[in-house]
What we know:
Elements: E1 11-14, H1 22-29, E2 32-36, H2 41-44, H3 47-57, E3 61-65, H4 74-87, E4 91-96, H5 98-111, H6 117-122, E5 133-137, E6 150-154, E7 159-163, E8 172-175, H7 185-203, H8 211-233, H9 238-252, H10 265-277, H11 281-296, H12 302-311, E9 323-330, E10 337-340, E11 361-363, H13 364-367, E12 381-387, H14 388-392, H15 400-412
Parallel strand pairs: 1-8, 2-3, 2-4, 4-5, 5-8
Antiparallel strand pairs: 6-7, 9-10, 9-12, 10-11
Amino acid sequence: MDNFFYHVPTDIYFGKGQISHLGERMAQLSKKVLLVYGGGSIKRIGLYDEVIAQLKGAGIEYVELSGVEPNPRITSVRRGVELCREHGLTAVLAVGGGSTIDCGKMVAAGVCYEGDAWDLVLDRKKLVAALPIAAVLTNAATGSEMDAFAVISDMEKNEKWGSGNDHTKPVFSILDPTYSMSLPAFQTASGASDIMSHTFENYFNRTKGAYLQSRLAEGVLKTCIHYTPIALADPDNYEARANLMWASSLAINGLLSCGESTAWSVHDIEHELSAFYDITHGAGLALLTPYWMEYALREDNVWKYVEYGVNVWGIDAQRAPILIKMHLKYLGKNTSKIQFDSPIICKYPDGTYYSLGGIDYIDKALLENESHHITLNPGDEFDSWFLYEAYRYSHDKTSPYNQVFFSINSILFDTCH
């Protein structure tokens, strides 16, 4: 485990009815507030009226910045900065999901910067001050309610970048899971994908010895795997919504990454994707993550994939190797078999290697299932990753190995498709 410094200044009010703290806490920050929200869902669920009642009850003046986009634009940030300066506003209250909170953070920073707020997006070193920020969360996804980060887009340039530091961490956030019950299934699934991706970015790293962080990350992943289907089937299930909302905060508030060296590769790739196509962030992550997992897998990091398979998905570590990469050649002509050479990785969780011995062929039909759609001509050669049990028992989805093989795409892509 590496050395680290950890500090989270955000106070969390979690649970039903915690909006009752809003007026008193905001009054401690400012009596003139910018109220930031998105497309109007907070009005449909009655949250807007609750917020306004709290602000008025505390004698707080407010100006509204509404219509914040799902991928918040720098134009909205600039508009918020102008409103704050015009009306002498000295704090920001963001009510909504991660996009709304991200926009609020950069508005708060932009007010304290003499140049264009986009400068702060491109170079967080220039972000040296910000107005105090508070948040009321409506969607379990980005974790922006308890971290420093904000992601802002300039669609005219097809650019999307992340920024933020300690100055943009919320002073307090209100997390009432009931506010997320009205979310469409697509947004619920996309949010879960975002939580899992944050956790993956922390979990898959080369730092050994950070045992506790890995176990915490596995707990967050198992929480998403368990409760996302429940929330999709029963949107008003408080237990599911509460667990997902808290998982959202824990996945990216720094707790899982302390003492580790992380890369956050998938998020950077997705930012490029949504900068051009304006897709939902969680759905983009769901699309990219399985491909990144395949690309990143190497012999020197397979141990981490083994931990993931065993500890998160419950694979029996004593039965079979977890992953094998094979070079395959379709013989064609008089056979439906595909020949494969020796595997690059065929490894037991205890670190020992396993030889496939005399197994030289695999049925072409087993590859042409819902995970591998291929058309081959005689002599075609290709590389592919397989779970060992996935081709031995490719038609048995009850096999724990197949459950991993199929469920990764199901949870991270199919539910967002």
